[in-house]
Amino acid sequence: MAGMQRTIVGLMVAAALLATLASGHADTASVHLTKDNFQSELEGSSYFVMFYAPWCDYCKKLAPTWATLAKARNGDPDGVVKIGRVDCTTDGDLCTQHDVTGYPMLKLFRKDGGADGATKYRGARDLAQFNAFLDEQLAPAAGDGPAKGADRDGEDGAQEDGGQADAPPAPVSPLTELTEDTFAKHVSSGKHFVKFYAPWCGHCTKLAPTWEELARSLEHERDIRVSKIDCTQYRPICTDFEVKGYPTLLWIEDGKKIEKYTGPRTHADLKQYVARMAGGLKEDGAQGAEPKGEGTLEGGAERDDNRSVVVQLSEGDFAHAIAKGVTVVKFYAPWCGHCMRLAPTWEQLAEKLTARDGVTIAKVDCTVDANKELCGEQEVNGYPTVFLYRDGEKVTEYFGHRSLDDLHEFVMQHLQDNGPHDEL
C-alpha cells in the first residue's frame, strides 16, 4: 500500500513538472535572465522582459505567446530587441529592484536607456500588439522609424481624431499635433494642456475623443491651447518632460511643466481642471480679478466670490494685511484636491469669526505668477499650508485636523494668548 502511494505521488509530481514545461516557463526560446546575467545582457541589447512566477495562471496563459514571440525575435540575427524572462520566485531581489508588483509584468529595456529607463507594457497580450509595441518603440533606434509626415499622422488620426485630416500643417481640428520641430516654440509662452501618448496605448485611444472634445470646447480661449505629442516618434521631448507612462497629461506654462494631471478623464473633469489652472474661462464669465477666479475654483461654478468673507491676498497687499492683529492665511493651489476640500470649511471659519475684532481669515493663490515669490519667501512647501501671523510676524504653522471646530479652536487659542509661542 505504501509503495502504491509513493507511486501515485511520484506520478503527480511528474504530471506537475510536465504541466510546468507545457506552460512555456521552461522554454529555451526566450533568454532566461537572472541577477548574474541581467545587467550584462542589457548592455548588449534592448530587451523585452517578462517578470513572472511559475504558479501564476496569467503567466501560464501568456507563456506560449511569449515563446512564439521569442522564437521570432531572438532568431532574427538583425533583430533590435531580444525577448527575455525573469523568474521572480528564484530572483526576487531582481524583481523588487525593478518594481515588480504583480505577475506577469512586461517591461522594455532599451540598450541605450539603462535598466532605470524601462517602459512598462500595458497593452493587450497578443503577438500583434507585442510586435506593434516593439516596432514603434524601437524603430528610431533601428533607423527605419515611421515617417514624420502624413503616414504617421494618418494612423494617429484614425485612432485619436476620428480619421480626420492626414496632414498636420492646417488641421481641421483645434487639437494641435506637436512635433520635435514645433513643440518648443508652441509651449514657450502661454498656458498649455498637453497629452503625451503612444498610438498602441489602449488608454490613449480611449481618451482620444474626449481630448478632441476638450480642444473644441476651448478653441475660443485665446490664452489656452490643448495639444498632443506622439512619444513613439518624439521620445527625447517626452523624456525631457519625465513622461514614464501613457497617456501623461501635463499643464505647461511658458515652457515649464507646472503640474501632472491625475484626476478623472471625463470632459467635464478635464475642463474644470483647465479652468482652475487658468483662473477661470471666458465662457464662464471668469474674466475678472484673481479673487473671483479662486472662489469659482474652490467652491464650485455656482459660487459667487463677492459673498466670500475670506480675504484674498496677493504679493502687493500681503505685508499690509498681516501688519496688525491675528491673520490666518491659507496658501493654496487651485488644482490641489486637499485645498478644494478645505475651501468650504475655510469660508465657514471666516464667517464664524467675521464679527470678532482683531482676526482676519485670508488666502493666497500660489500659482499666480505675482504670488510665487511671496509663497517662496513664506516657505510654503506644500498645499494647503496654513500660517498664523500676529502683528506682521509669523507665529506658527497649523498641522491639526482641518475640521471647522479644530480650526476655530486653533484661532481662538492664539487670540486669547497674545504672547509669542511656537506650539499649537
UniProtKB/TrEMBL annotation:
Gene3D superfamilies: Glutaredoxin (3.40.30.10). The keyword Signal applies. Residues 1-26 form the signal peptide. GO terms for biological process: protein folding. Residues 141-175, 283-304 are annotated as: Disordered. SUPFAM superfamilies: Thioredoxin-like. Keywords: Signal. GO terms for cellular component: endoplasmic reticulum. GO terms for molecular function: protein disulfide isomerase activity. It comes from the Eukaryota. It holds the Pfam family Thioredoxin. Residues 7-139, 164-279, 286-416 form the Thioredoxin domain. Belongs to the protein disulfide isomerase family. PANTHER family: PROTEIN DISULFIDE-ISOMERASE C17H9.14C-RELATED, THIOREDOXIN DOMAIN-CONTAINING PROTEIN 5. This is AGAP000044-PA. It comes from Anopheles gambiae. The lineage of its organism: Eukaryota, Metazoa, Ecdysozoa, Arthropoda, Hexapoda. The gene is 1272231.
